[in-house]
What does this fold into?
Amino acid sequence: MAEFILEARDVFFDYPDGTSALKGVSLGIEKGKKVAVLGPNGAGKSTLFLHFNGVYRPKSGKVFFSGSEVRYNHSSMMALRKNVGIVFQDPDAQLFSASVYQEISFGPLNLGLNEEQVKERVNRAMAATGITELGEKPTHLLSYGEKKLVSIADILAMEPSVIICDEPAAWLDPGHTARVLELFDRINRNGTTVVMSTHDVDMAYSWSEYVYVMHGGKIAGEGTPQAVFQDDGLLKLAGLQKPLLVDLSEHMRRKGLLAENSGLPRSRSEFLQLLDSR
Amino acid sequence: MFNIDCYAYSNKLRSCHPGEKFVFAFLTMAICLAFPSRTASLAVIVLMAGAAILGAGIPWRVYIKLMSVPLSFLLAGAAAIAVSVSRGGGPVYGITIGVFTLGVSPRDFSTAADVLFKSLGSVSCLYFLSLTTPVTEIISVLKKMRIPALFIELMSLVYRFIFVMMETASRIYVAQSSRWGYASFKTSYRSLSRLLSAVFLRSYYRSQMTYTALVSRCYTGELNVIEPRYAASVKNIMLIVLIEILLLALTLYGGGVPVGGIHS
It folds into this structure.
């Protein structure tokens, strides 16, 4: 059995106003993987994420980190939040400081590191996200894309073993989106598990190694991107479109333009290769 | 206000130690306030204008514009002090209606001028500080002065979220005006009230989000951040001391006596 770094078992959660956001969610995030969570607005993605670092506590059910059950006392919470970092969707809500450098230093300082270590981590996180030159700038003079990168650097500086990113591509221009994805790939190669929620099926299909589909507070389906995006029933239920590459490949198979047994291409170059190899 | 903020981050004195600028501004202001000497006030106005325009490289048009903001208030205030109504007697220049004279006595005029120049002098000290020193650095100076953490944290959060709220408000304003929300006096009135309540609600919602985001970064009640380090410059400190001594000498030579002393 694969090693789950994060796991939810039959988690139920209600908001104080009575809305039940999670209705028995069970899922496991494999260590070192790139995982995408898809689903319409209000499916419970963000609520689930906030369970993974203990901000929300399940009404019933259990959450596990690295195989051990999450406990809700102070020291366990600190240990969990050190290991599971969440990048929030709206950088303007996450960034609390007017100085980029001070903003990024907040997380590592809370981990009880000394000033030298914190500075080293801040500098490393800024270098990794390519925002070193923004250190002297005030937060409010940054562009949206730059703010997003700062909010990722916030979490990177804490060096968590899992990074959860809530709709990283929302409102980003294609240039910044590519930069963020490339950054996630790099972080992932260094052993960090990366989880993201997104509405962009093409991005989820090309980027992720495993996909969860949420709908109405439950897990509606899961699997490799190839499996999930060929499951028409699941896509229809969750209101998701088929990624263009999957759609085209399936169509061309039916027309006999691609071999039935050819694998699904994950990227534009794979698709062209497949066409050329015929 | 947003202009001031931009200059604070990009002026020529940006890299100077914020403590030096802080001390310079407040010492000068103290001298300006403590001595009832018009020479001192005028000297401070000239000194600070020089420091801001020549030292920090603030365009003189911008500086004049900024100074004219308090000037209009101050002129109105000074006029109220200068003009008085008296009933006969006294050297009053003005118009006489019956037994009453509406006018200006030299003594009142002199007081009004003193107040005007003194206020302008103090305001220019504050302008110098806010044009050359970003709020984040002023906050870190206050922190070094052991101002309570609660005050410091509130100040930095307020500063950060002023900009977020302004952006929210301007987005709502654009959305409203694109639907004729400000077409007439009546609709403007209604739109503005809705804008205010929307901004309030959103601030509340966003504060919850910010709190959640802080908590997930191990927030336990203290907003600790790394303070930037600035090298103190001996040259600057000597310069400040020299300027303040000269200012003090000029003030005393110009006949100023500290407040509480003998009034002329």
The interface with chain A takes residues 5-6, 9, 134-136, 156-157, 159-160, 163-164, 167, 206, 209-210, 212-220, 223-228 of chain B (CB under 8 Å). Chain B has two domains: 1-133+233-264, 148-228. Residues 1-133+233-264 of chain B form one domain. Confidence is low (pLDDT under 50) at residues 259-264 of chain B.
